[in-house]
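Appendix B, record 7
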Amino acid sequence: MPTPTTTPPTAPVANGFTFKDWEEHPVTPEGVFPRLARATVTNAFTGALTAPATTCAYTVAYTGETAGTFSGMELVTGTVDGREGSFVLEERGTFDATGTDCRFTVVPGSGTGGLAGLGGSGSFAHRYGDTSVDYAFDYAFTAPATNTATAAPTHQSA
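Structure tokens (predicted):
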């Protein structure tokens, strides 16, 4: 996946994130397609999901010089709807010379602290040259299984 352009930070969007760091390493020889690479990424989220520095690992499959698919896991430590904790996002997407499209899902059971019981999914579309990426995140909190008589999910869309 082409490395995102690093530019000075701009005012954050309502629900957005910026790439703080991107490090990619080839797994198979470069210039031969298809080929594989691994990338470690740090993102900073603002909006309904707030996290100053996530930890993300991608496996990237290049089908051409600037096109392919990716999948990865992102550990998010921060707040959702004012609740603090951590959780993991599973991500899958595609990219080409114009940008990246991605869908993500909260890994069931990965929420900790105030984010225990978090579930949801979302998406983003990044266009190369943009300094911030808007995201959509539909999520719900469910009460712990130990008290199912009063468990009622709360749903949000960000």
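Remarks on this record: The radius of gyration is 17 Å. The CA atoms of residues 42 and 155 lie 27 Å apart.
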